[in-house]
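Tutorial, part two.
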Amino acid sequence: MWTATKYGFFSTVRLIAEGQKTDKVMIRARQRGHLERLRERFKTRIGDVEILRQGMSDYLFRMIVPLETWASISAHLAAEIEYPNFKGEASRVFGHGDDYVKALHHVWSTFYDLQPNRSRVNDDESRGDRWRFPRDH
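Running the prediction step on this input gives:
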């Protein structure tokens, strides 16, 4: 599962040991700082879990936690959403020129291209800082 948050980007997968599913997941990240932010925010749930570095891997950094812990963290991440614009919140947390923020804009653009009706109309009258997307019929 990919999760883009104001703490960073994570790819979470079930930990498989000796060909068997375990009750743990690996939370993987491309930047160590993303895992450090997540660990700091959820210190009461995951404590000082070690951030592992695995060279020659598509995700260089990872933490291993129980699946139940990850489910709880995911629920809390959803519950603490208070911002009207995710990329704007990431810019506030990381800084406008940060590579993560730039990557979020690239991802947004890539997924925007998947949308069948891509025309946008700026809704200046009701919310000058928001976009109104036409409804698909």
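The radius of gyration is 18 Å. In part three we will examine how such features are distributed along the chain.
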